[in-house]
Design a protein that fits this description.
The protein contains three helices and ten strands. With 143 residues, it is α+β, with helices and mostly antiparallel strands. Strand 6 and strand 7 form a beta hairpin. The longest helix is centred in the middle third of the chain and has 13 residues.
Length: 143
């Protein structure tokens, strides 16, 4: 089985506060609630991309190392996402060019706000399952 285009790799950081809530962003481009993250640039390491994406989308600098909590493949978008549970090291949550709103969300609120494919990433990070979860989805629902 071959494809005309390669997979891309993305990272997402689930920042967890002392009340076991996760910081979600509401994206400007599609209005969806998700953990902050994005595609790795060619010259970046995974930790560098994770720090850059979280800082760009939330204004928060995270502590490295972060804990890998899941690997997710978007079967239709051909994106492999590495999701990490993160600790805030510095900064205050702020919106930016890619972020319309930010919100601390409980387990229950995550499932109400985010599509299943993104909610499960946050829930896996909140649960800090070991070994990391490995899941597939179609961009919205798990498959």
């Amino acid at each position: 089985m071959s494809t005309d285009r390669p997979h891309s790799v993305s990272v997402a950081g689930v920042i967890v506060d002392d009340q076991d809530r996760a910081l979600l962003i509401k994206r400007r481009d599609n209005g969806k609630w998700e953990p902050p993250g994005g595609v790795l640039e060619r010259e970046e390491t995974i930790p560098e991309a994770l720090q850059r994406e979280v800082l760009e989308e939330t204004g928060i600098k995270i502590a490295i190392p972060a804990t890998l909590t899941g690997i997710y493949k978007n079967m239709t978008g051909l994106i492999v996402s590495l999701v990490f549970r993160c600790e805030a090291a510095d900064g205050t949550p702020t919106t930016g060019d890619e972020t319309r709103a930010l919100r601390w969300a409980t387990h229950e609120e995550v499932t109400e706000l985010a599509d299943e494919a993104y909610a499960i990433r946050v829930l896996d990070a909140l649960d800090a399952a070991s070994p990391p979860a490995i899941r597939a989805h179609d961009g919205v629902k798990l498959v």
